[in-house]
Amino acid sequence: xxxxxxxxxxxxxxxxxxxxxxxxxxxxxxxxxxxxxxxxxxxxxxxxxxxxxxxxxxxxxxxxxxxxxxxxxxxxxxxxxxxxxxxxxxxxxxxxxxxxxxxxxxxxxxxxxxxxxxxxxxxxxxxxxxxxxxxxxxxxxxxxxxxxxxxxxxxxxxxxxxxxxxxxxxxxxxxxxxxxxxxxxxxxxxxxxxxxxxxxxxxxxxxxxxxxxxxxxxxxxxxxxxxxxxxxxxxxxxxxxxxxxxxxxxxxxxxxxxxxxxxxxxxxxxxxxxxxxxxxxxxxxxxxxxxxxxxxxxxxxxxxxxxxxxxxxxxxxxxxxxxxxxxxxxxxxxxxxxxxxxxxxxxxxxxxxxxxxxxxxxxxxxxxxxxxxxxxxxxxxxxxxxxxxxxxxxxxxxxxxxxxxxxxxxxxxxxxxxxxxxxxxxxx
Length: 428
What we know:
Number of helices: 12
Mean pLDDT: 97
CATH architecture of the largest domain: Alpha-Beta Barrel
Strand content: 15-25%
CATH topology of the largest domain: TIM Barrel
Shape: globular
Oligomer: single chain
Low-confidence stretches: none
Largest sheet: 9 strands, mixed
CATH superfamily of the largest domain: Metal-dependent hydrolases
Helix content: 25-40%
């Protein structure tokens, strides 16, 4: 059926309205709309958002299909309310050529659950020595506009400057994994009281902050755009705030787990809490929430990092870094930002849909919920409370830090260009 009427939903958390979808487009928004010829979704009390957009997802394909595939990752994304994700370049082979990014883009097209926009590597093989084929990736069918060596830092200042200069020509952006490598050699967790008590190698905040400070100055010098991946410290917030006050073209993201979890959890030695950058202190969490609320941090990005069981169910030092996040992100944001009064649902839409689409240059996502716009939509039952059970995840991996934790909110429906990918909380 080509027509769908979403009845009585609170659009962006506001007044209850009806939304009529006709084909791939929102045909009408109002009250008392006719349901003639339409499938009706009763949505009284639920919040309707534009489809979520994740600027930082690891889909692992090609090369690590034991962790995730484009299909399983996009199914997880749809389950979490996402209609578009940006796939990071640290695959095997690395997405540093037009051929590899086009492969990922085509796999996304075939999945049907979520649009996939590849992110191209900044340097060949993520080795930080030679610029990758930035222009060729941008000119490919995938039309790459975001470039990142995420998982590794572009620590050579000359390489970083050249990348910023190159992408400026076509309006691209370099997304930096801010980690000074020499300052984090042997690091296992946040450097602080807990690391000292546990005897684990510390990961100092300055390792992140020093790279961000350098890169915002380089972006100002070049007149280009830089995006800071998974910002995690109070000091980083202050640097980005200062840079924005100078008019530097910098944007930043925070992950859901850095909005909720702290390094105190590492006392359990449960490797599910091992992540890059590491979980920080309560002071950092507070600063990150406040910065997301006031716009210093522009967006929430999941850094969805799936790993097979054997890579996490082992001793702490040997465990891989990373957490899955697509299916729990909106719930964590509801708990940390909405239920604390720091953001309303319109603010959530800005930080999880409008702004990430704008930063990544996606024209048909992150659009208003109004007539004539693409019908990329997410319907959320905000009154729901449930315990996280990774056995029910659509992702191929189960490395979630929220297992057994009660979180609010549940995505009941996701629509990609008017087609339901999730219905009543179940993948279509």
